Q: What sequence folds into this?
């Protein structure tokens, strides 16, 4: 196996156990180093299942201006590599796309990348039942040399990373039930209720009124 194969296999094994945002980012950052790339970024595609697509941009290390263009479809069209990735399942190598880009905005985008020291990169499109849902991108200061076998492993990493990100974001919106904390009086009232006592009987046993007993029981609900 190649170095990238081994790194991808390790990333897959780690992603299967990843639960937190920090763990997901660390795994992808480590893989970025193995690829010899400068940065990585998960970006949304038109059929992204996440309610707030921009949350996907939290998972990556692209600079702010680069992330900003992916916050709307209208802005994202200046990235020709994203456009290619949306229309195929195979990885997209940036350098080849750069050579064929003719539009003014596309050329300006490529020039800005070069100003930032980015000369090459590769996109791994992730598809769902209704079409592309996201793209895992790697940007590099040098030419990226990735074999076809490496691409297969990295595509699997992209798919699993998206699954883990969706699961992490879904957990953020799950309301956790508050643990009940009862006072001694409330606990005593409930114990008598379990014995079948009425509010009046409990009040006599505890030396309080039936209304007070009802108050304590209501607080337990």
A:
């Amino acid at each position: 196996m190649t170095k990238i194969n081994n790194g991808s296999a390790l990333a897959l094994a780690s992603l299967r156990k990843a639960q937190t945002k920090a763990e997901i980012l660390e795994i992808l950052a480590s893989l970025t180093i193995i690829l010899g790339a400068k940065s990585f970024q998960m970006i949304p595609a038109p059929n992204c299942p996440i309610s707030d697509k921009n949350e996907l941009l939290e998972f990556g290390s692209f600079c702010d201006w680069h992330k900003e263009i992916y916050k709307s479809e209208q802005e994202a069209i200046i990235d020709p590599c994203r456009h290619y990735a949306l229309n195929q399942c195979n990885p997209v190598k940036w350098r080849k796309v750069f050579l064929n880009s003719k539009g003014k905005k596309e050329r300006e985008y490529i020039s800005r990348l070069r100003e930032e020291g980015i000369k090459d990169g590769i996109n791994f499109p992730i598809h769902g039942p209704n079409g592309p849902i996201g793209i895992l991108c790697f940007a590099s200061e040098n030419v990226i040399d990735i074999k076809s076998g490496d691409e297969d492993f990295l595509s699997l990493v992209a798919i699993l990373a998206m699954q883990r990100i969706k699961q992490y974001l879904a957990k953020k919106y799950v309301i956790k039930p508050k643990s009940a904390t009862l006072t001694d009086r409330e606990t005593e009232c409930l114990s008598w209720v379990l014995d079948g006592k009425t509010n009046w009987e409990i009040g006599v046993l505890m030396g309080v009124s039936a209304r007070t007993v009802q108050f304590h029981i209501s607080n337990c609900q």
